[in-house]
């Protein structure tokens, strides 16, 4: 008996681990035409209501929100059309006996809708629910955005060093014609050379600092971990409780 219990428990945990992986990927923004079939609720068999609607439907995805548009052929027969969240009539064609409705959907594959059919000519009045099964396979999925490289700020010291390096030194000034004796330029050249050497050293240090900072910024990028499903612990706990209840009841029955 214990062996069977542990086998059942293992199967339940296996189901719990595989269910989160069956989630559907988000559909990229856009407008798409999707074929569909109206089935009996919880069945793969087509309902009589399948002939009341035009194919295909139109799926509109905008910022992750999905909206479905469907055209009803026998508009006067379908007196009620109540999908989850309600439906809105966006256009009518009285000569063709058609109307187009729009409603939000959270699942682009299956939507259960309550409707009522009233056909006075044959005295048919009936309300029921049907499954709209959409073929949304092959639609483009949302692509993950690639992380953008951070813009490297330019330090003020680098700007000042660059402008200082490009500006002419006092010793390179133009000669002016005057009757005064020309002063000796040897000390000026010595001071200018020293200033230029200090400026070049500061420039090299600033440039080296920028390169090191850029290298450290690239090495310190954090790789995001893939999101994990929050539903897994809850599903596993529920399945464990169900398995425990089955085991206790089986043991009580055996004892009796």
From TrEMBL:
Segments spanning the bilayer are: 232-250
Bias regions of kind Acidic residues — which residues? 212-221
Q: What is its main location?
A: secreted
Q: For this UniProt record, give its keywords in alphabetical order, as a comma-separated list.
A: Cell wall, Iron, Membrane, Peptidoglycan-anchor, Secreted, Signal, Transmembrane, Transmembrane helix
**Start and end of every NEAT domain?**
27-142
Q: Where is the composition biased (Basic and acidic residues)?
A: 143-159
Q: What is this protein called?
A: Heme uptake protein IsdC
Species name = Solibacillus faecavium
Q: Where is the organism placed in the taxonomic lineage, from the top?
A: Bacteria, Bacillati, Bacillota, Bacilli, Bacillales
Protein's gene? isdC
């Amino acid at each position: 008996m214990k062996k069977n219990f542990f086998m059942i428990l293992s199967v339940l945990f296996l189901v719990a681990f595989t269910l989160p992986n069956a989630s559907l990927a988000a559909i990229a923004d856009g407008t798409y035409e999707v074929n569909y079939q109206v089935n009996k609720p919880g069945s793969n068999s087509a309902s009589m209501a399948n002939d009341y609607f035009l194919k295909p439907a139109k799926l509109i995805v905008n910022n992750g929100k999905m909206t479905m548009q469907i055209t009803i052929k026998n508009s006067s027969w379908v007196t009620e059309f109540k999908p989850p969240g309600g439906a809105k009539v966006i256009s009518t064609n009285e000569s063709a006996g058609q109307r187009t409705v729009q409603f939000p959907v959270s699942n682009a594959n299956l939507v259960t809708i309550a409707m009522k059919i009233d056909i006075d000519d044959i005295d048919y009045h009936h309300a029921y629910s049907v499954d709209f099964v959409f073929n949304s396979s092959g639609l483009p999925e949302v692509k993950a955005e690639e992380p953008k490289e951070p813009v490297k700020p330019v330090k003020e010291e680098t700007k000042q060093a660059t402008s200082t390096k490009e500006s002419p030194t006092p010793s390179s000034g133009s000669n002016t014609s005057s009757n005064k004796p020309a002063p000796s330029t040897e000390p000026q050249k010595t001071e200018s050379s020293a200033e230029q050497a200090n400026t070049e050293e500061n420039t090299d240090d600033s440039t080296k600092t920028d390169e090191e900072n850029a290298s450290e910024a690239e090495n310190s990028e954090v790789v995001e971990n893939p999101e994990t499903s929050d539903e897994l612990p809850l599903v596993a706990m529920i399945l464990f409780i169900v398995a425990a209840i089955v085991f206790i009841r089986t043991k009580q029955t055996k004892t009796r």
